[in-house]
What we know:
CATH topology of the largest domain: Beta-galactosidase, Chain A, domain 5
Strand order of the largest sheet: 1-2-3-4
Shape: globular
CATH architecture of the largest domain: Distorted Sandwich
Helix content: 10-25%
Number of domains: 2
Strand content: 35-45%
Radius of gyration: 26 Å
Structural class: mainly beta
Number of helices: 2
Amino acid sequence: MLPRRVYPRNDNAPIAILAMAISLLVCSAARAAASVPSVRYLPGSNIWILETDHTSYVIGVNEQNAIQNLYWGKKITRDQDFAAAHTREAYVFESPEGTTNEEYPGWGGMRYTEPCLKVTLAEGVRDLVLKYVSSRISGDALEIQTKDINYDLFVTLTYRVFPRYDIIRKKTLIENQTKQKVMIESAQSGVWYVPPGVGYRLTYLPGRWAAENQVTQEPIHQGKKVLESRRMVTSHQTNPYFAIDYKGEANEESGRV
């Protein structure tokens, strides 16, 4: 009879195998998450989703062929949770354009919000209504071209996503392809819509020599607040920074800002 070989017992083997399986699942999930592009288009609902590691920004083309802001906030992992863009229902004395979060409103039509672009044509026309023309996705960047309904005035909205830093950068290109001169009275890079709610607080940093960056905070009420510098340079008199936090509860470490 051959002698029987005795192997040492390893009670930790099942635990090690379980740990290895969990590790493989985590790695697979991480690879799957990494494979999801930060900018993607959903043709079924005609919307674009821009994602950072912790936030989602969603825009779409509504039934009036206008670019509409749909969502900006905590990251939503299911694309199916976003419905197609649609103008808000308006009262009889209002208009859908005046009650809808348009992504880049022009100064025209029955719009009551602050416009992103205000122009005057040489012939005196000042009405500007921008509609969707085309779009292009290139890596972490999205370009959406819009055009005025009557004139060859084009506005290209460009978004760049920096996923690791939870930053979405906006910029705008305005092109006059008409045969007349156009005076630009006001042009903004974009507009942001904070999530619905009350109790928002504004923080900004005015100052002077030897007293730079004075943290100033105040509640946000209905109306218009302007932070500006007329020195033609960035300076400590009006630091080009502001923050809005929810219910004034945010600090340096936590909170919705």
